[in-house]
Known about the structure:
Elements (H helix, E strand, L loop, with lengths): L3 E6 L3 H12 L3 E7 L6 H8 L4 E3 L2 H5 L6 E4 L6 H10 L3 E4 L7 H14 L3 E3 L7 H11 L6 E9 L9 H4 L8 H17 L3 E9 L14 E8 L4 E7 L7 E8 L2 E4 L2 E4 L11 E2 L15 H13 L9 H20 L3 E2 H4 L1
Parallel strand pairs: 1-2, 1-4, 2-3, 4-5, 5-6, 7-10
Antiparallel strand pairs: 7-11, 8-9, 8-15, 9-10, 11-12, 12-13, 13-14
Helix pairs in contact: 1-9, 4-5, 5-10, 8-10
Bound molecules: nicotinamide-adenine-dinucleotide.
Amino acid sequence: MKKYNVGVVGYGWAAGAHIAAINTGELGQVTAVCSSRKLDDAELSTRHGCPMKAYQNYQAMLKDPSLHAVSICSYHSQHKEQTIAAAKAGKHIIVEKPLALSLDDVHAIEKAVKAAGVKLCICFELRFSAQFKVIKSMLDRGLLGKLHYGEVDYYHGMGPWYREYEWCVTNKNCGSSLLAAGCHAMDVLLMCMGDDVEEVFTFGSNSSSPTFGNYEYPTATVTVLKFKSGKTAKCASVIDCLQPYYFHTHLVGSEGSLLDNKFHSNFIQGLDKSKWSQLSFNPVDSGDVSDHPYKTQFDAFFTAIDKKKEMPLTGLKEAVLTHEVIFAAMKSLKLGKPVKMKEVR
Ligand SMILES: NC(=O)c1ccc[n+]([C@@H]2O[C@H](COP(=O)([O-])OP(=O)(O)OC[C@H]3O[C@@H](n4cnc5c(N)ncnc54)[C@H](O)[C@@H]3O)[C@@H](O)[C@H]2O)c1
């Protein structure tokens, strides 16, 4: 018998991956789904291999006392209300990125979650990918020395073939390349740099290809970050490219460098710094939700709930910090000048 019952809201692409990841974990199971479409309990249960109840009314699902947590997989514009309502109902929360579409909404969520004392897990699941587990443990062990520069960039062509294209192209439903998907790159960049951001400056452009013509916002943005410690970094979010998915990572420290799956470290005797050394891991190389490390992330979430601890790596604190930097970047892009973090907090 699994310990934590989960209700999923929004039954689309991401929801399918969440249900599979939760159900294959040891502690959680999805027992309810809320969708705007009318779903059948028996059909749902057969499809996912466990008893499930279908709701069309989110408030009704939240009233179900057997549910311990919700997983919010709906449209971006619904995340704020659904997250705050879940917190008020005393449910722990898994929420898809972005947390919300404005910084005021992010802070309203932060307040509600803290007041309710529930745990939150933001789906910045790449922190749990093999690639970033390896990178983080190298950084934690000091193999690159002290980092002073980093780049993490997101290249993923999200044209009309992309599942979310239809609703993600508008300012109302999305509003920036970073909120659409580049937030994953910004999030792991912040994890790697491990320091407070002081100021950001963002530029943006659009492809002249009609393929990406429906986007209402700049689809290729580049954000330069300055940290309080003096470190600098760069994050490009390019969703209008015609190339394979590429998650570019380049970190430079006082004792070595890392480029994607290659590195050099002065702390490993005998390495030749004119040649890269190779790391083995499954790289982050796909925008397909079935390839995302949701299971590892959700296992960590249910374990944290069980131990009454905060969610490691992707809890409320990290969710708020990363979104603050993203909204500062969006403000900089709009104003055409650098924005200090203290101007948005
Ligand atoms: N973390 C990641 O890597 C990743 C990857 C893909 C999607 N996502 C995120 O997941 C979320 C959902 O995206 P998606 O790709 O599944 O989109 P989608 O269009 O496939 O699904 C959205 C779903 O929400 C449902 N819905 C809409 N209104 C509803 C309501 N009032 N009640 C219940 N259900 C409702 C829709 O019917 C639809 O099924 C978005 O926030 C998206 O950014 C994250």
